[in-house]
Amino acid sequence: MFSSNSSSSPSSPASTDAAVNHLADQAAESADHAIKAAQRVATDALDSLAGAIQALRAQAEPLLDGAADQASSMAHRGLNSLHDSSRYLRSSARHASENTVGYIRHDPVKAMLIAAATGAALMGLLGLVRGSHHRD
Prior knowledge:
With about 140 residues, this protein is mainly α.
């Protein structure tokens, strides 16, 4: 391209060096612009992602709070139900005990005969169960 003959070359080496430096500067400037544009795109994408995450968090937070409130409410209802059932069982046992004591006071002989018959029946069942285990 370049000949060693300086008379046929329209430009001097100094002007060629200047042109190369100018092209290098333009390339560097273009690279800087491309890097800055890529940085802007990346920053915009991260900002968009951060906004989407904030929106999801804002939507999820009331749902999580509601779920926690509902779980707490269910636990309280369960405890209240357990307390009510316990109170009912105690009342029923007390009532049965009072009725039994009243029945024994009203007819003690009959109550003793029923107790003896019940005891004998239980002992008979226990003997049958033990006897069947010893045969096996």
